[in-house]
DNA sequence: CATATGTCCTGAGAGC
DNA sequence: TGCTCTCAGGACATAT
């Protein structure tokens, strides 16, 4: 999503509007009048990412934080539908505005000053990023926990950027059972989890994400991803494991979230 | 402090 | 066919 938005770096914001929407409004902070006053005329100097959020850095040093959650999209293309368009950011000299579209409306858009950013998205709130931390940092972040590894991988305060789908995929390739307790993992197992964390995320980025059955995820140009065709366990309950070719994929629930795994490839030991 | 649970939202799909 | 019900999961507030 972030990479697809890079073409708007250098653009000047001309206006911001909240298109009329029959659905319940999402969180936009501050309210639109103040939001507009602080962004119109500013230049987009960078598009960054912190954990799962898109960070649009402005020449004022303020940042627009897009938090898409499951169904939110940040687009520089026509959205998937006319409904559920939540915010439009017009750019000088650009045909296409920057859009925030969110079918379920659990996402948000926030304009943060550097001081607000430091508090709300500081290291207390967002842990080291999954794409850049070392195996030692991963073990340091989660190794002392008594929780099961799979829910621990989703704790954004300790490790940023891993979602439910990818947690299952990573553990399958690492050969680690999702119910394995963090404090009972060996250093070799942490190294394998770290290795597959990078591998899965980099591959998923290469394929532009996973567009599941409901068709929600699209890249910044409103194109489908392709990684769903490479899933080894996610949403494959009852199907044959692609790794061992023997066992079938099982589904369990951990802290209210689905987990998929192969009972043969992923040992509890 | 460390974890777990309830909540928000909409539309797809299941089951009748 | 059309209705109701369940479920999907990311982050945060609240509970244990």
Automatic annotation (TrEMBL):
InterPro entries: FPG_cat, FPG_N, H2TH_FPG, Ribosomal_uS13-like_H2TH, Znf_DNA_glyclase/AP_lyase, Znf_FPG/IleRS. It comes from the Bacteria. Its cofactor is Zn(2+). It catalyses: Hydrolysis of DNA containing ring-opened 7-methylguanine residues, releasing 2,6-diamino-4-hydroxy-5-(N-methyl)formamidopyrimidine; 2'-deoxyribonucleotide-(2'-deoxyribose 5'-phosphate)-2'-deoxyribonucleotide-DNA = a 3'-end 2'-deoxyribonucleotide-(2,3-dehydro-2,3-deoxyribose 5'-phosphate)-DNA + a 5'-end 5'-phospho-2'-deoxyribonucleoside-DNA + H(+). SMART domains: Fapy_DNA_glyco, H2TH. GO terms for molecular function: 8-oxo-7,8-dihydroguanine DNA N-glycosylase activity; class I DNA-(apurinic or apyrimidinic site) endonuclease activity; damaged DNA binding; zinc ion binding. The keyword Acetylation does not apply. The keyword DNA repair applies. Its EC number is 3.2.2.23. Transmembrane segments: none annotated. Residues 232-267 form the FPG-type domain. Keywords: DNA damage, DNA repair, DNA-binding, Glycosidase, Hydrolase, Lyase, Metal-binding, Multifunctional enzyme, Zinc, Zinc-finger. GO terms for biological process: base-excision repair. Residues 1-107 form the Formamidopyrimidine-DNA glycosylase catalytic domain. Belongs to the FPG family. This is Formamidopyrimidine-DNA glycosylase. It comes from Lignipirellula cremea. The lineage of its organism: Bacteria, Pseudomonadati, Planctomycetota, Planctomycetia, Pirellulales.
């Amino acid at each position: 999503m972030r990479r697809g938005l890079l073409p708007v770096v250098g653009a000047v914001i001309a206006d911001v509007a909240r298109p009329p929407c029959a659905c319940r409004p999402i969180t936009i902070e501050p309210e639109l009048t103040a939001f507009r006053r602080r962004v119109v005329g500013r230049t987009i100097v960078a598009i960054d990412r912190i954990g799962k959020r898109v960070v649009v850095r402005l020449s004022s040093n303020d940042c627009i934080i897009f938090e898409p959650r499951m169904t939110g999209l940040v687009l520089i293309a026509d959205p998937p539908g006319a409904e559920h368009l939540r915010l439009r950011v017009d750019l000088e000299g650009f045909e296409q505005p920057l859009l925030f579209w969110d079918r379920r409306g659990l996402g948000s858009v926030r304009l943060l000053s550097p001081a607000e950013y430091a508090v709300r998205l500081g290291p207390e709130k967002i842990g080291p990023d999954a794409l850049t931390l070392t195996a030692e940092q991963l073990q340091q972040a989660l190794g002392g926990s008594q929780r099961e590894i799979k829910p621990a991988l989703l704790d954004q305060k300790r490790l940023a950027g891993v979602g439910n789908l990818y947690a299952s995929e990573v553990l399958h390739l690492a050969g680690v059972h999702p119910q394995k307790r963090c404090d009972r993992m060996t250093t070799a197992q942490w190294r394998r989890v770290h290795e597959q964390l990078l591998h899965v995320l980099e591959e998923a980025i290469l394929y532009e994400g996973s567009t599941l059955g409901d068709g929600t995820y699209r890249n910044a140009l409103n194109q489908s991803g392709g990684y769903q065709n490479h899933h080894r366990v996610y949403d494959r309950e009852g199907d044959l494991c692609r790794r061992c070719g023997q066992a079938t994929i099982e589904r369990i629930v951990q802290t209210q979230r689905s987990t998929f795994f192969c009972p043969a490839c992923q040992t509890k030991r």
